[in-house]
């Protein structure tokens, strides 16, 4: 049987091509390509005197044998865009934002959040579907802390917004922030982050409130728990009452159901909310307290007062329509709403009515 020389040449060519492809996708070359990119996992933005300071947590690609703490880079510039350009120039690496998990702004940057975040709005590669936070101090101080870097990854920081233990609200996603900013009818709340007392971890400490894309104020951790309740997202929240001796009584909201409504009374909007809660008390005398109708009444009175105080502070002091009252007014009273030139100004005259009913979890 004779071999066709043309067929032999084709076989040799094909084998050579396959070997070339295998070498191209080899581990070493792939590793080299990875080292040419700067994979950003977290971003901190500070602003002072019309200049920005950008602190980024990046994936450490030096070793394939173990997970290393993230590398942290800090640069400054006239804009967020210029900061990223400076990072790329200084490192000689291409910036990859698709793995970014969060953005933290200090309060000065948050007060101009619509401007600060415009870079991520306009950049497809930035993928604006990330968690937002505000820091009560410089983000550089948070993200460059050596003890934090030893104990927390970017993933750990991203998870803070899902924890209620510190009284924070769930973290707002950037796409949600953008949508609310564009609607002009409601605003958002973003967890405030700070360092723990031993400076080893980043923890939540209250909430920052936004009006039309700008931070307008902040509330405490305890007030944030009440805001969770007002937003019908308070399952698992814990409030603290005091007994006759001044000792704390932790009251857990096991489940929560609410009904809210909006009505016009003499040209004034009245927002009302009925809150029905199942509660538990984690103390040795908890069972006895749950059977004490007077104490249950005190809890209801305390929560009604807390809800009223927090709602007025959020809406009237900080002009933040976190309860989306504007959306309800537009849907239910379109004619009257269309005559309002400035809804946030109208918010200041909204009245509140809260009715709280609690029952023991054992019933």
Keywords for this entry:
four-stranded mixed sheet; 363 residues; alpha/beta
Measured on Cα atoms, how large is the radius of gyration? 27 Å
Structural class: alpha/beta
Q: Helicity, in percent?
A: 25-40%
Give the SSE string: HHEEEHEEHHHEHHHHEEEHEEEHHHHHE
What is the number of helices? 16
The total of beta strands comes to 13
Largest sheet, in brief, is: 9 strands, mixed
What fraction strand? 25-35%
- Uncertain spans, ≥5 residues at pLDDT below 50? 27-32
Question: How would you state the average pLDDT, rounded?
Answer: 84
**Global shape:** globular
Q: What count of domains describes the coordinates?
A: 2
CA distance, first residue to last residue: 91 Å
Description:
The structure is a single chain. With about 375 residues, the chain is α/β, with parallel strands linked by helices. The protein folds into two domains: about 190 residues, no CATH class; about 130 residues, 2-Layer Sandwich (GMP Synthetase, Chain A, domain 3), CATH 3.30.300. The protein contains 16 helices and 13 strands. Strands 1, 2, 3, 4, 5, 6, 7, 8 and 9 form a nine-stranded mixed beta sheet that branches. Strands 10-11-12-13 form a four-stranded mixed beta sheet, sandwiched between helices. A hairpin with a 2-residue loop joins β1 and β2.
Summarize the structure.
This protein has 363 residues and is of the alpha/beta class. Helices cover 38% and strands 30% of the residues.
Q: How does the SSE layout of this entry go?
A:
Elements (H helix, E strand, L loop, with lengths): L4 H20 L2 H9 L1 E12 L2 E8 L12 E7 L2 H12 L2 E3 L5 E5 H4 L2 H4 L1 H5 L8 E5 L3 H5 L2 H6 L2 H6 L14 H10 L5 E7 L6 E10 L2 E6 L1 H10 L7 E5 L5 E18 L2 E14 L4 H5 L2 H25 L7 H8 L1 H5 L4 H5 L3 E10 L3
Parallel strand pairs: 1-4, 1-5, 5-6, 6-7, 12-13
Antiparallel strand pairs: 1-2, 2-3, 7-8, 8-9, 10-11, 11-12
Helix pairs in contact: 11-13
